[in-house]
């Protein structure tokens, strides 16, 4: 074989050109799939902004952000989003009061005290809680939690904020416990041993060494769980009701932003009406809240990631 | 004269030919790097991984149908050099190559060279046996299929297994998984897979390092036989192995410098460099 | 305790700390039980409420507004259109998701170089995973139902659910691809395979069990989602199963929502029966996923 022939076989001048085009085409197909995720984000933002722009052509932003009455469909109409935001806040704060202490204590138990065999069973069992559809939690609130609340507080109605907060709290326990347990297990044993070497008890090691060392991961899990609670829809719609009002009584019905969206979704509000447009304004508000929390969570996690490696 | 390739070259192309040839002289290893009709020729080859330079101005000529061994302590760049021959380094994103490495006189780093086509001419066997989780037959046939050499696959698979000295052991179980073989058999399967599409050159990256002594000696016999038909370049950390099976030996020492390249006998009996002698006699490395 | 014991001093303090420690462990253990007890209570509640209501008729008849029809001896009423609708919806979602999810993951793991665009896409995927599902519903409503004029159809619902679970499928597929040893890729490159051949012949077959496990788990999340298909306009009063991509559809979570909000207390039992059917299907999907994972646990 001559040298020229040898060379031709390894250059792109030969039959290989076809393969190259095929490979480039395949690469573009895969790239387009990845691009769909970017287009999804763009789509969400554009859809929400477009609908909101139409809404705010008829309603002043000031009224929307500061008004304390929400009734965009039924006259007399008013467009203050605060009752919905308040409803969402009650659920979020209430569920956090349940999930954060219980979830953190569970994580400490699983990471520091539990037998590895026990942990291997308990952790996935708790994660089942996160896999149960939220509609089931709504049913659970109506048929189990609310009757119990009514037993203790007889005036409570069928729909009440407390039941919503409790089921959402149960739902997000595994987010807090699993992610926090991951962070705690990642704390190197050297640190624990150093504290034991100084005569610390196991309690002190857990609370003064492990928890502070894993704090960034633990806090990131809290924020993620809160963000989930803010966006939670079906359970709060069924449990907490559809009465937008600013109340501090947890046994009163309320309405969250998500529950309002469901209300419009199941009613036959016509396209282009103010009710339809309000969907997107509320959606944008919700999206902005969860997005900022997710970004904070990611930021905390990435910022402190290398600390204990 | 000692081999000092220092840092990255600062000589620009516009400088005179005289000066260039002088620096090349300085970069050249001790020994007799020139061979007649080399298949592979490396000139002033630098390889970088990110900011780190893994190879410094390698000059080497690899003869046809001979076994060329690359030896040296770990981290000396011998595997890096091997992988730059068939452009496996392309798969490492941070790897960058300067200088020239030619195959039959054609620089394989030219823009018009297709690394896939190159690897069809220059096959490779890896440190750990890595058969696919497929049947023995499909493992050997894989290269033929991807290269479109689909005629007489049966015959080519048999020939390759025979050349790899594996046929007698597996003839009755060609359909069983390649992963069911022993480590030594797996490695010979990988060799069969590499030679089935009939490449010209076979690169071997410490092919026996994961094997027991009996399997190792089978691989060594095989390497010597393969050199009758193929050009073999083999990386090994085992000096006795290099002495036993190779015709030419290149000694890389720390930091990615090729210190000496010569006939294997010469390297092991009377090396020019004191550092190579120290290394061969086990004073370091 | 003898006074010559050199460790005697300060043992009171240590004892006190031990006490606190024991109380602390008790609290942590009790907290762990809360989650487990809640899970047991939830399942027990659903089973109790649905007892006697999950019948063959419930699985094979369309819904009814009249509670007597659900009872034994009644005309027969149940979840049939929603059950079939959910299965169609998930099957269609699976087709879209596998194509897009595996494609995107292959691009990110096998093709993309480490540059700003890749990090941007990956950060974007992480953020999408945290977007509330009802927002995806709004997206589906505006783009698929209205924009693309698909109406409240099966395909619009499936596309919406696809976008919802895409981030999870991509991330789990990336993990499966990352678990394929590099030596396998190198072996294929070494005999002159092109990148596409390496992916098709070596990487994807090896990663397949992991990809399937991740995809099935994601689909089991999609089948329980209510909010997105509610926004897209899934029907609650449909008496036939969907018969085409563009036909309107009903789905189990929607039906359960409808029943749970009806004022007659008996419909609570019907809702519970629907939940039992939904959870059974979820359980089956998860069992299949775990089976695949255990059966094909990749050898090291």
From TrEMBL, chain A:
It is found in: Cell membrane; Membrane. Belongs to the binding-protein-dependent transport system permease family. CysTW subfamily. Signal peptide: none annotated. It is a multi-pass membrane protein. One of its GO terms (cellular component) is plasma membrane. This is Phosphate transport system permease protein. The lineage of its organism: Archaea, Methanobacteriati, Methanobacteriota, Stenosarchaea group, Halobacteria. Part of the binding-protein-dependent transport system for phosphate; probably responsible for the translocation of the substrate across the membrane. InterPro entries: MetI-like, MetI-like_sf, Phosphate_PstC. Its main location: membrane. One of its GO terms (biological process) is phosphate ion transport. Pfam families: BPD_transp_1. One of its GO terms (molecular function) is phosphate transmembrane transporter activity. The gene is pstC.
Automatic annotation (TrEMBL), chain B:
Residues 1-36 are annotated as: Disordered. Residues 12-23 have a biased composition (Basic and acidic residues). The keyword Membrane applies. It is an enzyme of class 3 (hydrolase). One of its GO terms (molecular function) is ATP binding. Its EC number is 3.6.3.27. One of its GO terms (biological process) is phosphate ion transmembrane transport. InterPro entries: AAA+_ATPase, ABC_transporter-like_ATP-bd, ABC_transporter-like_CS, P-loop_NTPase, PstB-like. Keywords: ATP-binding, Cell membrane, Hydrolase, Membrane, Nucleotide-binding, Transport. One of its GO terms (cellular component) is membrane. Residues 40-280 form the ABC transporter domain. Gene3D superfamilies: P-loop containing nucleotide triphosphate hydrolases. The keyword ATP-binding applies. NCBIfam families: 3a0107s01c2 (TIGR00972). This is Phosphate ABC transporter ATP-binding protein.
From TrEMBL, chain C:
GO terms for cellular component: plasma membrane. GO terms for molecular function: phosphate transmembrane transporter activity. InterPro entries: MetI-like (IPR000515), MetI-like_sf (IPR035906), Phosphate_PstA (IPR005672). Keywords: Cell membrane, Membrane, Transmembrane, Transmembrane helix, Transport. Coiled coil: none annotated. The keyword Disulfide bond does not apply. The keyword Cell division does not apply. The chain crosses the membrane at residues 23-44, 79-108, 120-144, 150-171, 229-250, 270-292. Its main location: membrane. Residues 83-288 form the ABC transmembrane type-1 domain. It comes from the Archaea. CDD domains: TM_PBP2. It is a multi-pass membrane protein. It is found in: Cell membrane. GO terms for biological process: phosphate ion transmembrane transport. Belongs to the binding-protein-dependent transport system permease family. CysTW subfamily. This is Phosphate transport system permease protein PstA.
């Amino acid at each position: 074989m001559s040298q020229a022939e040898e060379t031709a076989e390894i250059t792109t001048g030969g039959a290989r050109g076809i393969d190259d085009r095929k490979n480039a085409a395949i690469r573009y197909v895969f790239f387009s799939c990845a691009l769909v995720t970017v287009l999804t984000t763009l789509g969400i933002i554009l859809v929400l902004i477009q609908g909101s722009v139409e809404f705010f052509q008829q309603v002043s932003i000031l009224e929307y952000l500061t008004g304390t009455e929400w009734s965009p469909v039924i006259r007399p109409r008013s467009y203050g989003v605060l009752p919905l935001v308040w409803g969402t806040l009650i659920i979020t704060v209430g569920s956090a009061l349940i999930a954060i202490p219980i979830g953190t204590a569970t994580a400490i138990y699983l990471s520091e005290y539990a037998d590895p065999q026990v942990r291997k069973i308990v952790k996935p069992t708790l994660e089942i809680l996160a896999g149960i559809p939220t509609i089931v939690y709504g049913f659970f609130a109506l048929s189990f939690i609310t009757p119990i609340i009514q037993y203790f507080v007889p005036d409570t109605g069928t729909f009440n904020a407390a039941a919503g907060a409790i089921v959402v709290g149960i739902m997000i326990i595994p987010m807090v416990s699993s992610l926090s347990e991951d962070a705690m297990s990642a704390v190197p044993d050297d640190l624990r041993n150093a504290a034991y070497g100084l005569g610390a008890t196991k309690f002190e090691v857990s609370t003064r060494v492990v928890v502070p060392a894993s704090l960034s991961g633990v806090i990131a899990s809290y924020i993620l769980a809160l963000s989930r609670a803010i966006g939670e829809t079906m359970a709060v719609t069924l449990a907490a009701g559809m009465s937008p009002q600013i109340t501090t009584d947890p046994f009163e019905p309320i309405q969250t932003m998500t529950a309002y969206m469901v209300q419009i979704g199941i009613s036959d509000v016509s396209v282009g009406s103010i009710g339809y447009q309000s969907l997107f304004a509320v959606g944008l508000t919700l999206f902005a809240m969860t997005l900022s929390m997710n970004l904070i969570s990611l930021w905390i996690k990435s910022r402190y990631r290398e600390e204990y490696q | 004269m000692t081999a000092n390739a220092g840092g990255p070259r600062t000589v620009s192309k516009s400088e005179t030919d005289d000066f260039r040839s002088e620096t090349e002289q300085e970069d050249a290893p001790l020994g007799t790097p020139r061979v007649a009709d080399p298949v592979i020729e490396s000139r002033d080859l630098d390889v970088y991984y990110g900011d780190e330079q893994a190879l410094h101005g390698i000059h080497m000529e690899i003869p046809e149908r001979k076994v060329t061994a690359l030896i040296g302590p770990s981290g000396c760049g011998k595997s890096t050099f091997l992988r730059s021959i068939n452009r496996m380094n392309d798969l490492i994103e941070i790897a960058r190559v300067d200088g020239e490495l030619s195959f039959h006189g054609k620089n394989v780093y030219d823009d018009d060279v297709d690394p896939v086509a190159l690897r069809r001419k220059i096959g490779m066997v890896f440190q750990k046996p890595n058969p696919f989780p497929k049947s023995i037959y499909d493992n050997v046939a894989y290269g033929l299929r991807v290269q479109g050499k689909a005629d007489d696959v049966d015959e080519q698979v048999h020939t390759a297994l025979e050349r790899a000295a594996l046929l007698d052991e597996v003839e009755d179980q060609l359909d069983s998984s390649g992963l069911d073989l022993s480590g030594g058999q797996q490695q010979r399967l990988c060799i069969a897979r590499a030679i089935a599409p009939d490449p010209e050159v076979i690169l071997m990256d410490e092919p026996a390092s994961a094997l027991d002594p009996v399997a190792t000696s089978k691989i060594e016999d095989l390497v010597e036989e393969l050199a009758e038909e193929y050009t073999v370049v083999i990386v090994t950390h085992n000096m006795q192995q290099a002495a036993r099976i190779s015709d030419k030996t290149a000694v890389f020492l720390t930091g990615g410098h090729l210190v000496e390249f010569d006939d294997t006998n010469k390297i092991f009996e009377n090396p020019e460099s004191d550092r190579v002698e120290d290394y061969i006699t086990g004073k370091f490395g | 305790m003898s006074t010559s014991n050199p460790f005697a001093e300060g043992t009171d303090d240590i004892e006190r700390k031990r006490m606190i420690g024991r109380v602390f462990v008790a609290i942590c253990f009790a907290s762990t039980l809360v989650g487990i007890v809640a899970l047991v209570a939830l399942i027990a509640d659903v089973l109790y409420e649905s007892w006697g209501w999950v019948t063959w008729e419930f699985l094979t008849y369309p819904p009814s507004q009249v509670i007597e029809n659900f009872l034994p001896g009644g005309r027969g009423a149940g979840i049939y259109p929603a059950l079939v609708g959910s299965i169609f919806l998930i099957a269609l979602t699976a087709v879209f998701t596998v194509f897009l999810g595996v494609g995107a993951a292959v691009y990110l793991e096998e093709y993309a170089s480490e540059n700003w665009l890749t990090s941007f896409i990956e950060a974007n995927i992480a953020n999408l995973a945290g977007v509330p599902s009802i927002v995806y519903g709004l997206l589906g409503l505006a783009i698929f139902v209205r924009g693309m004029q698909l109406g409240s159809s099966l395909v619009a619902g499936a596309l919406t659910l696809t976008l919802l679970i895409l981030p999870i499928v991509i991330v789990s597929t990336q993990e499966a691809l990352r678990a394929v040893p590099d030596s396998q890729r190198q072996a294929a490159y070494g005999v002159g395979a092109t990148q596409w051949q390496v992916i098709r012949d070596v990487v994807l077959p090896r990663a397949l069990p992991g990809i399937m496990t991740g995809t099935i788990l994601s689909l089991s999340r999609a089948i329980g989602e209510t909010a997105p298909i509610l926004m897209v306009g899934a029907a609650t009063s449909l008496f036939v199963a969907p018969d085409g991509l563009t036909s309107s559809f009903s789905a189990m979570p929607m039906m359960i929502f409808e029943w749970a909000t009806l004022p007659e207390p008996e419909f609570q039992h019907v809702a519970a029966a629907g939940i039992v059917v939904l959870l059974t299907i979820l359980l089956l999907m998860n069992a299949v996923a775990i089976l695949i994972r255990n059966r094909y646990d990749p050898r090291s």
